[in-house]
């Protein structure tokens, strides 16, 4: 366990880096900016994080856990048709975009389209696998009973988040009225209908073995 002072120092740096990133975007924030804002010396920052990239990795992981955690909780918490559970996951994504607009823009979208994301692909691949595992475990009996189409976990994530994030992009561009969450029913139905249509096209795994 880290000493309390070490945890406090780390948190001060993370809090300052988060605040500066939300205001300016991560590419515009320097290590010097974080040092000045946090009051933590450059040597101490280096000791705890190694570099600005070490700080960014922590911001990235924390925000992905919050975002995808909210989506996963909505999927796992739905009691009913499992294809509709993924629709509820999409609704949760829209709610996150609405409630945390600045965080979503700065800590999700801007990372997604950055060279940093390309350079740290292994971090995202490992994290995505970790975050989606509870949903995969929940889905296994539904695959076996042909209640969900047999698709890769990454496809389920793309088909759940893609429509929600596309709607939010249009909202951020000023092309949609209201808020992303106001389109929750539409997007949830769209995601569920797409998975259900694919389920119809996917052979019953039990029947295929007969």
Average pLDDT over all residues: 94
What is the domain total for the residues? 2
Topology, number of strands:
0
Distance between the termini: 55 Å
Largest sheet: none
Low-pLDDT sequence parts? 205-210
What Rg, in angstroms, do the CA atoms define?
A: 20 Å
Structural class: mainly alpha
CATH class of the largest domain: Mainly Alpha
CATH architecture descriptor text of the largest domain: Orthogonal Bundle
Q: Secondary-structure element order, as H and E? A: HHHHHHHHHHH
Helix content: over 70%
- Measured by DSSP, the beta-strand proportion falls in under 5%
Tell me the overall shape: elongated
CATH topology of the largest domain: Tetracycline Repressor, domain 2
Q: Please, how many helices?
A: 11
CATH superfamily descriptor of the largest domain = Tetracycline Repressor, domain 2
Tell me what you see in this structure.
This protein is mostly helical and 210 residues long. It folds into two domains: 8-50, Homeodomain-like (Arc Repressor Mutant, subunit A, Orthogonal Bundle), CATH 1.10.10.60; 56-200, Tetracycline Repressor, domain 2, CATH 1.10.357.10. Helices cover 78% and strands 0% of the residues. It has eleven helices and no strands. Helix 5 crosses helix 6 (101-112). The longest helix is centred in the first third of the chain and has 25 residues, at 52-76. Mean pLDDT is 94; it is low at 205-210.
